[in-house]
Amino acid sequence: MNPHDEFDRAPVNRLLGMRLVESTAERSEVHLPVRDELLQEAGVVQGGVLTALADTAAVYLLWPRLGDGRTMTGTGCSMQFLAAARPGMGDLVAVATPLRIGRTMAVCESEVRQDGRLVAKGTFPFLLQPRPATGS
């Protein structure tokens, strides 16, 4: 399956307005236009939105390559917010790369930039497991 098609079918990706630009085993890139609905009280992009963007980039680094009969579950995340993401400064761009991919665990790192500035960085661990059998 084409990762772009699968990405576009996910309701949250459509809701937030994210766009998958690249998805390989070494790198994934997801863009998010900044719009007023994503801002918090101080007029900057809300931290949960930055986290969702970084997480989505990490997911699409792994998800398209899991293969039939496998699934993944996020087990946590660690985010550092390094600068304010603001309207009028361009799209947010999240790039995820693998830190370690094993048989049962994977850890990815995502950087979120706006106009070349690093605004957030996160680490995302995932449990890789067999897909549960569906009951009859």
Written account of the structure:
With 136 residues, this protein is an alpha+beta fold. It is globular, with a radius of gyration of 15 Å. The protein has one domain (3-130): Thiol Ester Dehydrase, Chain A (Roll), CATH 3.10.129. Strands 1, 2, 3, 4, 5, 6 and 7 form a seven-stranded antiparallel β-sheet that branches. The two termini are 26 Å apart. Helix content is 21%, strand content 39%.
Please specify the SSE layout and strand pairing.
Elements: H1 3-9, H2 11-16, E1 19-23, E2 28-32, H3 47-62, E3 70-74, E4 78-81, E5 92-101, E6 105-114, E7 117-130
Antiparallel strand pairs: 1-2, 2-5, 3-7, 4-7, 5-6, 6-7
Describe the structure concisely.
Helices cover 21% and strands 39% of the residues.
Structural class: alpha+beta
The number of domains: 1
The mean pLDDT is 94
CATH-derived topology: Thiol Ester Dehydrase, Chain A
Shape: globular
Write a concise keyword list for the protein shown above:
136 residues; single chain; seven-stranded antiparallel sheet; alpha+beta; 7 strands; Thiol Ester Dehydrase, Chain A; globular
